[in-house]
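Need a sequence for this fold. Nothing fancy.
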């Protein structure tokens, strides 16, 4: 395992030098505490959107004897200038684990060569790598050791809270029981339905997202808020995540999946009732091309290859995969044991309508009802059970080998964005661009068109027809609304039917509206402080960092947010119960400050 590419999901909330422009600001020119001694100076970096958190932190640190300077500016670009210049001691950050697995939560941040590395610590590197090879009943203790190391022993980070996620649903229009709110997986469009089912064919499902400029509709070329939900519904994957982040085959391309003994080989038996969809004459059509093992191998080989496409943004999520093979020998399934002791064949057959009597490497020859199946095997570089979570991510969506190869005829090294139109380029679906829509969707919906205001998606007629996973509503319209208040107003005015991302201070607005329901679920979002580990007093003064750590009282944050936050210890907190907790300790703070200033 190496670095993970997920910069756009690392929501770094930080800002630029300056005084906090609110009435709640305290004067920052005090250099002595009430006892006349010199106070340790701490520069706190954050964005104006986190002003409330910064004020709470300032008050907690000040009451424990620190002189706090607030460093705020309203945009991320301003922060990067200050961050790169090292103009902070501690910074307010947040992280959301979008794949539902702890390796994603720690590798990028807490390893020496991580994409968003906060520090270099060989012991932390070893613990992250060890945990990645283990199953959940083993890795809990390893992650506990990691959390103890980075939070309490070395105080590289200091936790603030874990957030919930919430969405408003128009229950007068939608059957709210069909609207899911997963912790990690993007919205499940195919499950949604109207109270009046006669509207399925005539009434578009009105949804929203903030970003209208799409990075790419090629799943491996983007990992951000502009396309994660869209690509999740455009492309099927080998596995899915439940609303509570369990890896399952339900509603995926696989009927079953099995981990072989040794945690390094993973088998998937594929279903034969999904075809690619395309747009012809503004209508969604079944292309007649089946989604099969050949497409899986092609898609995952290119996903793990950093040179398969220009501007590949997700390869490090998949570089843990070594080989992707289409299994042709039935004896291999019968002679290989699963982690549960039964053969892989026996495990794959669990719950199937027909046993696996024959394997085929030709997707057109698969016939599940008569026992003819395709099976894909993924072998990882090292034992890595959490590969399954990455296979549930939108970047592991299955594309058509035939279609992609027919579009991507350019030389990757010579690719010119102004002249070459790659598969997934948003220009191919943008109204008035003059480009042909070349998207082949393996998922429940195919994109028909987009403009500056919305994107239209149509039901894939070849997606698991006649099953519980067949999309219910014929058309989905995603409205591009950047401002949260405007989005809330659109929900209340029936312009959209779901608002995913209701802020804590607007919960009451939703619950008090008779035609709306507020849905809540746990999330994998954690807010925390990180210390500047280069060229600052806190960089080399462990006691000073620990004094900051034990000054934090998370209950004050939870109280401020009216109970809509939970305690945290690290970015692992929503995923692994390590049994650790942070308790404020003013006496210990004073002892540590004495040690820090000796």
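Here you go.
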């Amino acid at each position: 395992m190496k670095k993970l590419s997920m910069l756009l999901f690392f929501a770094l909330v930080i800002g630029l030098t300056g005084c906090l422009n609110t009435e709640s600001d305290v004067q920052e020119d005090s250099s002595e505490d009430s006892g006349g001694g010199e106070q340790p100076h701490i520069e706190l970096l954050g964005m104006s959107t986190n002003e409330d958190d910064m004020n709470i932190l300032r008050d907690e640190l000040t009451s424990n004897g620190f002189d706090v300077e607030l460093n705020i500016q309203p945009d991320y670009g301003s922060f990067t200038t200050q961050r790169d210049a090292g103009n902070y001691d501690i910074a307010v950050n947040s992280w959301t684990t979008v794949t539902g697995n702890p390796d994603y939560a720690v590798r990028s941040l807490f390893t020496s060569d991580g994409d968003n590395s906060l520090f270099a610590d060989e012991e932390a590197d070893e613990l992250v790598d060890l945990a990645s090879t283990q199953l959940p009943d083993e890795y809990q203790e390893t992650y506990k050791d990691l959390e103890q190391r980075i939070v309490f022993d070395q105080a590289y980070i200091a936790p603030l809270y874990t957030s919930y996620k919430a969405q408003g649903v128009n229950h007068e229009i939608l059957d709210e029981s069909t609207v899911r709110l997963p912790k990690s997986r993007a919205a499940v469009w195919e499950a949604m339905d109207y109270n009046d089912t006669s509207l399925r064919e005539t009434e578009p499902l009105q949804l929203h997202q903030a970003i209208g400029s799409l990075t790419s509709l090629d799943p491996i070329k983007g990992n951000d808020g502009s396309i994660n939900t869209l690509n999740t519904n455009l492309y099927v994957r080998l596995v899915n995540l439940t609303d509570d982040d369990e890896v399952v085959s339900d509603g995926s391309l696989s009927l079953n999946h099995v981990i072989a003994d040794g945690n390094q080989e993973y088998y998937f038996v594929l279903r034969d009732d999904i075809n690619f969809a395309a747009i012809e004459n503004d209508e969604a059509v079944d292309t007649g091309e089946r989604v099969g093992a050949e497409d899986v191998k092609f898609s995952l080989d290119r996903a793990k290859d950093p040179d398969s496409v220009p501007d590949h943004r997700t390869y490090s999520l998949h570089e843990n995969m070594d080989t992707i093979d289409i299994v042709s020998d039935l004896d291999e399934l019968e002679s290989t044991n699963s982690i549960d002791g039964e053969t892989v064949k026996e495990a794959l057959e669990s719950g199937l309508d027909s046993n696996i009597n024959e394997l085929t490497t030709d997707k057109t020859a698969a016939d599940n009802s008569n026992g003819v199946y395709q099976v894909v095997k993924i072998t990882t570089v090292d034992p890595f059970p959490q590969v399954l979570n990455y296979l549930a991510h939108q970047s592991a969506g299955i594309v058509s080998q035939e279609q992609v190869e027919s579009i991507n005829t350019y030389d990757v090294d010579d690719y010119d964005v102004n002249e070459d139109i790659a598969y997934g380029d948003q220009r191919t679906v943008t109204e008035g661009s003059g480009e042909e829509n070349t998207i082949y969707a393996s998922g429940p919906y195919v994109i028909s068109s987009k403009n500056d205001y919305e994107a239209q998606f149509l039901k894939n007629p070849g997606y698991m027809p006649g099953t519980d996973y067949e999309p219910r509503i014929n058309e989905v319209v995603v409205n591009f609304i950047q401002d949260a208040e405007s989005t809330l107003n659109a929900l209340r005015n029936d312009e959209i039917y779901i608002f995913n991302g209701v802020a804590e201070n607007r919960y009451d607005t939703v619950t008090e509206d008779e035609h709306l329901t507020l849905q809540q679920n746990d999330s994998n979002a954690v807010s925390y402080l990180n210390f500047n580990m280069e060229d600052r007093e806190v960089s080399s003064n462990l006691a000073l960092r620990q004094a900051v750590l034990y000054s934090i009282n998370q209950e004050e944050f939870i109280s401020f947010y009216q109970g809509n936050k939970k305690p945290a210890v690290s970015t692992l907190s929503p995923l692994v119960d390590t049994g650790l907790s942070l308790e404020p300790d003013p006496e210990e703070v004073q002892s540590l400050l004495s040690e820090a200033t000796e």
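For context: The longest helix spans residues 136-153.
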